[in-house]
Every structure is written in structure tokens, then in C-alpha cells.
Amino acid sequence: MKVLVTGGAGYIGSHTVLSLLENNYDVIVYDNLVNSSVESLDRVEKLAGKSVEFVEGDICDKAALSHVFKKFKIDAVIHFAALKAVGESAQIPLSYYQNNVHGSVCLLEVMQENDVHNFIFSSSATVYGEENEVPYVETMKLGTPSSPYGASKVMVERILADMTVSNGRFRGVSLRYFNPIGAHESGGIGEDPTGIPNNLLPYVAQVAVGKRDKLSIFGDDYPTKDGSCERDYLHVMDLAQGHVAALNWLNCNDEFRGVEAFNLGTGNGISVFSIVKAFEKATNKIIPFEVSPRRAGDLPAFWANANKANKELNWQASRSLEQMMEDTWRWQSNNPDGYLT
Ligand code: NAD
Ligand code: UDP
After folding, report:
1. In the chain, how many domains are there?
2. For 258-310, how does the pLDDT look when each residue is reduced to its tens digit (9 = 90+)?
3. Nearest of 210, 159, 173 to residue 329 by alpha carbon
4. Do residues 154 and 207 lie in contact, with contact meaning Cβ atoms separated by under 8 Å?
5. Hey, is 291 helix, strand or coil?
6. Domain housing 145
7. What is the CATH number of the domain that holds 137?
8. Is 177 in the pocket of ligand 1 (CB under 6 A)?
9. Is residue 223 situated within a structural domain?
């Protein structure tokens, strides 16, 4: 089975491509490398002992996409390609809607024109917005996210719902990721942010390796156990395997038409202070930090109810917090400058 993976050179994409190869799927990666390098795919090929087709291109370029669909007989699409920096999305919202929403529409149009109907979408816990109570369950209504990035994910989920009405053959899965962290256990592939990391774990890891002086903890006065925000952190390899599980689910459910959402998380909320402690314990490194003001748009705490994915996809986040920390550190210490190392 041939799977087109948009954004497959990125953080979650590269780990998923590895899992797909290990599960005997043929993979074609389509990526414009705006936030990644092909080095990630070279390393994936080495780890898997198999090759990946790579096409450099933009999802907004329908002609280039059409060419890919004509050249390879694609059976299913996993759609990671997106811009993902929450803060940046408030500064340049039009670029986010252009890339994430218009780009997804282009991809769905080209799929339809080429009679491809199996689609897995990278959604996010952010679609639950501020209105819903934790833990988040798939039966809740989509909320109002606080950023254009989050809104772009809600919009694509709405588009998928509309597709199921207009196209009776559409088979879509929205995977709502919680907070993926960690790296492949080899330390060969991992998260390689450009510039100053926005996310917690890459920042902590860069402090540990000496690239940043200290971590700023955004707020210690939230209504949580220790005052810092709580999130549902899951290992990126568990998340990668969630995509294989979703693809297997589509393959086993021939009759399925429509779109289904699944939360991919552990079901546990972990605070920022606990993450720092867990990282220090797993790595024997001290992480200097200071408490700074809250970051605009952050919610105090959210985590998943992952029962639906556990039951229907037969998927569970199985790797421990300790392993997430150890694997983050193996990647960062082996590759202090990411893929440029
Ligand atoms: P990433 O930036 O590492 O990967 C995204 C990839 O898409 C990059 O390789 C980038 O070059 C590519 N890309 C971006 N725009 C493109 C375009 N127009 N055409 C072709 N390629 C393009 O990000 P990631 O963390 O791997 O995230 C993957 C997906 O998961 C994204 O859709 C993101 O919104 C979603 N997601 C991520 C997280 C997270 O915490 N990392 C959480 C929830 C959802
Ligand atoms: N965070 C922090 N310092 C940082 C980066 C993040 O204290 O340098 C906090 C942030 O406020 C949030 C948690 O860590 O409570 C996770 O943030 P991240 O950006 O990784 O994920 P998201 O906000 O998307 O859940």
C-alpha cells in the first residue's frame, strides 16, 4: 500500500514515516522543507533499512501535487504539512490560513480528482478550545481556540465534515494530538526547531546542552496542583504508531465512510515543574529556571480521554515519562545542533 505523507520530513512526520516503513507501507514524502531538512529522511532510511521517495513541493501547488498522484499510485494520504507556531500565527494569521487551510483544500481537491479517498489529518487538542472541560472527549463540540493556528485546525476539521456529505466515498480520520515529545530511541531522529524553541521540551533540552542559559516557566499561579500548567505529554513514537493504527483501522473497515476523530494522548496531566524534575532525574542535569509571567493564550490544564483510540484503534500510549526524557536527551546530546550536527 502506497501512502503519501505531506510534511513527512518534519518532527512527527519523520517518526511516522519510520513506523510506516517498519510496517511494510511504501512511503512518498511531499514536503517544501520550510521547517525541516531532508537529512531527517536519510536517517529514517538508515534506521529502517528501506528507502523513501521524496518530492520537494508545496501543498498549495496543485499542479505539482497532481503530478505526484499521477506518478505514484497513492492509496492513502497522511497530512502533516502545516505551520505550527501558535505565537507566530497571531502575527501572520493570513500565512497560517493560506498554508494550513487553503493548502489542505488544495490537497483534498487533488485527492478527489485522482479518486483517492483515505485521509488522515494531523489535528490537535487545541480544537477543544476554552469552552470544554477536561478531560477532553471526542463527543464534545469543537471549541474556539485562542490562536489562528488553532482556528486553522478547527476549520480543516469542519471542511472534512462537509466532505463526508458531498463525497460519499470519503474516509477521513482526524487525529487530535496532545503534546508529543521525545525522539526515536536510537537518538538518530528528533525534534529540530529553528531559532528559539516555542515548545517546552526542546527548550529544556537546549538549556541542558548549554545552548540556552535558563528556562522561563510561564506562570506559577494557575489553579493547578503546583501552580504551573498541566499538559498530556506523549512519546512521539507512540504518536507515530497511532498513525499506523489509524491506517490499519481504515484498511480493516472497508464499509466505513465519513470522518472519525480520535484523541491521541496518555490521559494524564503533567505540570511544567514536574517535567523539569523528570528531565533532571533522567539525565542527571540541572535545569536552571525562572518563573516568568503567563504566556498569552495558555490554558491552565488539559489532557485526553483516550478511551476511543484505545478501544477502536487498539492503540495505547505505552512509553513512560522517564523514557520520553531519556530519548529527548539522547537525541539532543548526540545532535546539539539538530540535523546540522
Ligand atoms: P514540523 O514543522 O516539524 O513538520 C511540518 C512539516 O510540514 C515540515 O517538514 C514543513 O517543512 C512541512 N510543511 C509546512 N508547510 C508546508 C507546505 N505548504 N507544503 C509542504 N510542506 C509543508 O511540525 P510537527 O510538529 O511535525 O507537526 C506536524 C503536524 O502535526 C502539523 O500539522 C501540526 O500542526 C500538527 N500538530 C503538532 C503538534 C506538536 O506539538 N508538534 C501538536 C498537535 C498537532
Ligand atoms: N512552557 C514554559 N516555558 C517554555 C515553553 C513552554 O513554561 O519555554 C509551558 C507552557 O506555558 C505550557 C507548557 O509549557 O504550559 C507546554 O507548552 P508547549 O508550548 O510545549 O505546548 P502547548 O502550549 O502547545 O500545550
Report:
1. 1
2. 999 999 999 999 999 999 999 999 999 999 999 999 999 999 999 999 999 99
3. 210
4. no
5. strand
6. 2-181+232-266
7. 3.40.50.720
8. yes
9. no
